[in-house]
Write a structure and sequence with these properties.
The complex is a heterodimer. By secondary structure, chain A is mostly beta strands. Chain A has one helix and eleven strands; from the N terminus they run E-E-E-E-E-E-E-E-E-H-E-E. In chain A, the strands form two sheets. In chain A, strands 2, 4, 5, 6, 9, 10 and 11 form a seven-stranded mixed sheet that branches. Chain A has a four-stranded antiparallel sheet with strand order 1-3-8-7, with no helix packed on it. In chain A, a hairpin with a 5-residue loop joins strand 4 and strand 5. Chain A is globular, with a radius of gyration of 13 Å. Chain B is mainly beta. Helices cover 0% and strands 42% of the residues of chain B. Chain B is built from no helices and eleven strands. Chain B starts with a strand and ends with a strand. Classes of the chains: A mainly beta, B mainly beta. Chains A and B meet through strand 5 and helix 1 of A and strand 6 and strand 10 of B.
């Protein structure tokens, strides 16, 4: 089966610009998660979708971040406007049921650099 | 609050030497703990979970509730073990993982 796919793999943008990251989960996985790792810090949870609904968005840092999952398939994470501290690696993961029971499959990540 | 602590940022060992990657946690209740690994240019992947009590690639980890630890061990390190290792546990709702900062393991010959 195809794994979790993330686009782009790298993105370099200027402060103030907008960037949209995309995640295609494993087909049939209702649960989709976004995480990010800022340089030198731990991987932190951003939000969790069950199908198209946001189940938990407690990890979203601020309102410059907007995540969507229209139709319950792929998801996008938009950062607008980007700030320097948004630089890091953004990971997407999917799971068939709750990840703690079923296990998570991670994508390769998108490395975002804001200059 | 749930927390995962990996005290070592980098662990360097020689091939054939024993390895222990430390992980301590704080959690209310009975936690389920995981070790994830990211090899160079590969995606983050599950290495092992404590409930399965299995050995993967020669690695084992035992949950010690008294010491709130879940250290990852391997008796004889191989060069291909070089990677970033993350210890993790679920949040209270079970909806997401809480990760430690990770430990880079470097195995040299």
């Amino acid at each position: 089966e195809a794994g979790v796919t993330q686009f782009p793999s790298h993105s370099v943008i200027e402060k103030g610009q907008t960037v949209t990251l995309r995640c295609d989960p494993i087909s049939g996985h209702d649960n989709l998660y976004w995480y990010r790792r800022v340089m030198g810090k731990e991987i932190k949870f951003l939000l969790h979708f069950v199908k198209e609904s946001k189940q938990d968005e407690s990890g979203m840092p601020n309102n410059r971040f907007l995540a969507e999952r229209t139709g319950g398939t792929y998801s996008t994470l938009k950062v607008q406007p980007a700030e320097l501290e948004d630089s890091g690696v953004y990971f997407c993961a999917s799971s068939q049921g709750l990840g703690s029971n079923y296990g998570y499959t991670f994508g390769s990540g998108t490395r975002l650099t804001v200059v | 609050a749930q927390r995962v602590t990996q005290p070592e940022k980098l662990l360097s060992v020689f091939k054939g030497a024993p390895v222990e990657l430390k992980c301590n946690y704080s959690y209310s209740g009975s936690p389920e703990l995981f070790w994830y690994v990211q090899y160079s240019r590969q995606r983050l992947q599950l290495l092992l979970r404590h409930i399965s009590r299995e050995s993967i690639k020669g690695f084992t980890a035992d949950l010690n509730k008294g010491e709130t630890s879940f250290h990852l061990k391997k008796p004889f390190a191989q060069e291909e073990d070089s990677a970033m290792y993350y210890c993790a546990l679920p949040n209270q709702a079970g909806t997401a993982l809480i990760f430690g900062k990770g430990t880079t393991l470097s195995v040299s010959s």
